[in-house]
Amino acid sequence: MRLSELGEFGFLAELERRGLAQAIEHDAAVVDGLVVTQDALIEDVHFRLDWISFRDLGFRAVAVNLSDLAASGATPSALVVSLGASPDATVEDMIELYEGIADSGVPVVGGDTTRADKLVLSVTALGRSERVPGRAGALAGDLLVVTGPLGASGAAFREHRYVRPPLRLYEGRRLARTAHAMLDISDGIARDAAHIAHRSGVRCVIELDRVPLAPGATIDDLGFGEDFELLAAVPEPDFHVVGRCEEGEGVGLLREGRPYALTAWDHFKS
């Protein structure tokens, strides 16, 4: 079987089934009280250099990791950064990239550099949290909320550009006090709601007409992902209510009260 048949999350499930990975169902890992997450950005897979500046790329590489910490209710403390670049890359461009990383306000304390045919930027973010909601605690009767407008990344992609992801660290800490489940919206609201539904054993119903849209975005842009807002299952209304958890399984998307379908990103199938 090929990865294209199994898909990204099918592959992760297979690793769990074989005992080759454990406790990977949440946005970040908790190791001896430390919240740890890691993401890699690869040229022509996650970004195109003619669509983004090096400074914005550096910030983006950190922001996608800080989004996972936000979903864990964590405060970031340090970054470990690995850079793969061509020997022909200019020092000025790489300095600009690290200036973008510094824009996050979180210090780089280590990492690695290596030669690569295409630009590769891998960031590990470390932080601490008083309470990590995870994805597995949502209950029937919970409300589903988002921390801000969605669809900005999908709208920007149609214009051959990228937007700087938001940093929702304060919102994450606030929600973590009471949220039964929480994650960041990186793969599209339907796919990410499915993670909560699967791990919590509930059905997530999203009313698309209630989802706040970013300027220029459409409903279909909600399937693109990379908005890096937070989606949480909470017992009381907070932020933008977009749906609810019910008895059952899976995800139901409604538009004007009728079922609606959104596409979603998969690294191996897409």
Summarize the structure in short.
This protein has seven helices and twelve strands. With 270 residues, the chain is of the alpha+beta class. The relative contact order is 0.17.
Structure keywords:
single chain, 270 residues, alpha+beta, seven-stranded mixed β-sheet, five-stranded mixed β-sheet, 7 helices, globular
Describe this structure as you would to a colleague.
This protein has 270 residues and is of the alpha+beta class. The protein contains seven helices and twelve strands. It has helices spanning 3-6, 8-17, 54-71, 91-102, 152-158, 169-176, 189-200; strands at residues 29-31, 34-42, 74-85, 108-115, 120-129, 143-146, 181-184, 203-207, 230-234, 240-246, 251-255, 258-259. The strands form two sheets. Strands 7-9-6-10-8-11-12 form a seven-stranded mixed β-sheet. α3 (54-71) packs parallel to α4 and α3 (54-71) runs parallel beside α6. The radius of gyration is 18 Å and the shape is globular. The two termini are 17 Å apart. The mean pLDDT is 94.
